[in-house]
């Protein structure tokens, strides 16, 4: 499998990364190199091996359902670029 | 003319009844001041780690067991990537390939009376995920305000198979699911507050065609009425498009309750590419057999089981039994009423709750849980009908009096207002004699074959008795006398 230049540009757009045509070309080379590596690894017979969701064979620790965090809005909003009426303000976005 | 068949699948987001968030210890209470319940994890500050809420998992297990699904002993959280300001991490933690609940089904009653039928809707899956924050676009010049109180609230997303064939079936499904999640105590069901919201996937196809048509997804329907209106509009729109020779394009649409129309939000071309992958911050969720067994043992009697028991134990019809198990409040009220009135009165208990009480509650916009007439009072009333102390007609008066607080018990009302039925045959006989003597015209008409004249005479006797004479005795005595 290899990526087209168009696919590289789409991925960049999805990740909100602005890249020039030259950068897209370089990136395409890098990514395709990684795909080659993956293809090599796919040559290994993994039939009967359960797919792994995490590198460590341990399971998720759970916490009790209790409120342990108080209101620290003032501290958090002190470092926010813009706030009003308790809200964080961002450039207008309407989908 | 082509006959069209409607195909509907529903995705529901049920907010789970926890006090803290799914991955943080911030509160989930509704209506707090903006951003006062958003902690470092919810804000996605650098270096924070999510830790899963045990209660949220337990809610998912409860739901899985209640619908007869498989509860996965191992499930995995994944990142669903998209950019939006009310999602500070840039991804939503959800589940993709290995959800916590797989399969299951829900049995619905669709329609009413003679047209009622039963339908089984299969569920595809249910998975745990976090809610996003809220964006407010109106109040700020060129800016959007972001409230992250809701960010990280635990949700169970419940996905049905495309098994529904009309908006009525879709609504029946949503209502059953809504009742079930409240019944098993995993969601408060408050639709105004967004605790239970539905997306409907709608397509149409010529009747008899095996393949599905192209679907459009209607997002975020937060009332049963909107669900029905949105589907009805969407179906008609799709049929018109096809009949005018256009093709349906896969899309996401929004319903505007003011215009009653759906409008496109995004087409398939701009559909999100969420690039799911397992979240490295979270380990696989392992649910032991012991845990599942414990939750199973704590599960209440489910609506379906209770319905079957009502049919078996009380001889109720399937229809009555499902109406009485439509939600946990009505079921509790019925059980209390039958408990007090006695099993032999189960049918009148069912009727009074489903007809008289329901109509009165409906008129005043009240919930059965806030009924001014308690189950014990209603049971007392029903017992007095059963033992012939009062007739059904008088019972309605007593019911009204109880509703208005004119007495603590049916007996007290009957006593105070002198409503006890006259069953003394001597007393009724003398009333009948008086009426026959005073209405020779009616008697003559009846003898000439006019059946209606008989009813007029019954009416006269009841009037003379102020409605308190036993109607059966009046009938019998009148017949006897007129025949003689």
Structure description:
The complex is a heterodimer of chains A (95) and B (484). Chain A is mainly α and 95 residues long. Chain A has helices at 5-14, 21-42, 73-78; strands at 62-63, 83-84, 87-91. In chain A, a hairpin with a 2-residue loop joins β2 (83-84) and β3. Chain B has 484 residues and is α+β, with helices and mostly antiparallel strands. Chain B has helices at residues 40-43, 54-66, 167-183, 224-243, 289-298, 303-314, 318-324, 328-341, 346-363, 375-386, 392-403, 410-416, 425-438, 440-447, 452-464, 471-483; strands spanning 4-15, 52-53, 70-71, 74-75, 77-81, 91-95, 101-102, 105-110, 117-130, 134-136, 143-147, 154-160, 196-206, 216-221, 251-256, 261-267, 277-278, 285-286. In chain B, 40% of the residues lie in helices and 20% in strands. In chain B, α3 (167-183) runs antiparallel to α4 and α8 crosses α10. The chains are: A mainly alpha (95), B alpha+beta (484). β1 of chain A pairs parallel with β2 (52-53) of chain B, so a sheet runs across the interface.
Number of strands of chain A: 3
The largest β sheet of chain B comes out as: 10 strands, mixed
Radius of gyration of chain B: 30 Å
Number of strands of chain B: 18
Which sheet architecture does the biggest sheet of chain A show?
A: 2 strands, antiparallel
Question: Notable features of this structure?
Answer:
heterodimer, A: 95 residues, mainly alpha, 3 helices, 3 strands, flat, B: 484 residues, alpha+beta, ten-stranded mixed sheet, three-stranded antiparallel sheet, 16 helices, 40% helix, 20% strand
């Amino acid at each position: 499998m290899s990526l087209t230049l168009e696919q590289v540009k789409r991925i960049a757009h999805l990740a909100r990364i602005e890249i020039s045509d030259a950068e897209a070309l370089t990136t395409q080379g890098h990514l395709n190199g990684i795909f080659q590596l993956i293809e090599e690894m796919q040559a290994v017979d993994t039939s009967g091996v359960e797919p792994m969701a995490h590198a460590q064979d341990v399971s998720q620790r759970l916490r009790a359902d209790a409120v342990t965090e108080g209101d620290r809005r003032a501290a958090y909003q002190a470092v926010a670029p813009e706030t009003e009426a308790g809200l964080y303000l961002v450039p207008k976005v309407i989908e | 003319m082509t006959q069209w068949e409607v195909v509907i699948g529903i995705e529901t987001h049920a907010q789970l009844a926890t006090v803290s968030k799914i991955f943080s210890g911030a509160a989930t209470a509704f209506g707090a001041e903006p951003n006062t319940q958003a902690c470092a994890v919810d804000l996605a500050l650098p270096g924070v780690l999510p830790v899963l809420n045990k209660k949220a998992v337990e809610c998912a297990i409860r739901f899985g067991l209640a619908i007869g699904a498989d509860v996965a002993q191992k499930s995995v959280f994944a990142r669903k990537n998209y950019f939006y300001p009310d999602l500070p991490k840039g991804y939503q933690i959800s589940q993709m390939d290995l959800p916590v609940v797989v399969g299951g089904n829900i049995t619905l009653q669709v329609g009413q009376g003679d047209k009622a039928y039963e339908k089984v809707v299969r569920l595809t899956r249910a998975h745990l995920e976090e809610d996003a924050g809220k964006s407010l676009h109106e109040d700020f010049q060129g800016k959007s305000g972001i409230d992250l109180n809701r960010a990280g609230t635990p949700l169970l997303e419940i996905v049905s198979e495309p098994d529904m064939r009309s908006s009525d079936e879709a609504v029946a499904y949503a209502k059953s699911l809504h009742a079930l999640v409240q019944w098993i105590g995993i969601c408060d069901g408050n639709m105004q507050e967004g605790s239970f919201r539905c997306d409907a996937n709608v397509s149409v196809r010529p009747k008899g065609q095996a393949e599905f048509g192209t679907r459009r997804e209607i997002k975020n329907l937060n009332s049963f009425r909107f669900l029905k209106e949105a589907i009805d509009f969407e179906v008609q729109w799709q049929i018109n498009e096809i009949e005018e020779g256009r093709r349906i394009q896969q899309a996401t649409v929004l319903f505007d309750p003011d215009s009653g129309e759906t409008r496109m939000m995004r087409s398939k071309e701009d559909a999100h590419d969420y690039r799911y992958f397992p979240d490295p911050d979270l380990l696989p969720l392992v649910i032991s057999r012991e845990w599942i067994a414990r939750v199973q043992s704590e599960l209440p009697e489910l609506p379906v089981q209770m319905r079957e028991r009502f049919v078996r134990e009380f001889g109720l019809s399937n229809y009555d039994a499902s109406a009485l198990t439509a939600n946990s409040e009505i079921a509790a009220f019925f059980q209390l009423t039958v408990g007090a009135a006695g099993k032999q009165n189960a049918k009148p208990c069912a009727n009074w709750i489903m007809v008289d009480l329901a109509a009165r509650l409906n008129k005043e916009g009240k919930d059965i849980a806030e009924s001014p007439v308690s189950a014990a009072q209603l049971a007392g009333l029903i017992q007095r009908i059963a033992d012939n102390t009062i007739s059904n007609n008088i019972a309605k008066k007593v019911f009204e009096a109880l509703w208005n607080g004119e007495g603590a018990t049916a007996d007290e009302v009957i006593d105070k207002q002198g409503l006890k039925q006259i069953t003394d045959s001597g007393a009724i006989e003398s009333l009948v004699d008086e009426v026959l003597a005073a209405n020779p015209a009616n008697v003559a008409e009846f003898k000439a074959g006019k059946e209606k004249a008989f009813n007029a005479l019954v009416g006269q006797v009841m009037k003379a008795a102020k409605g308190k004479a036993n109607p059966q005795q009046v009938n019998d005595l009148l017949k006897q006398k007129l025949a003689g």
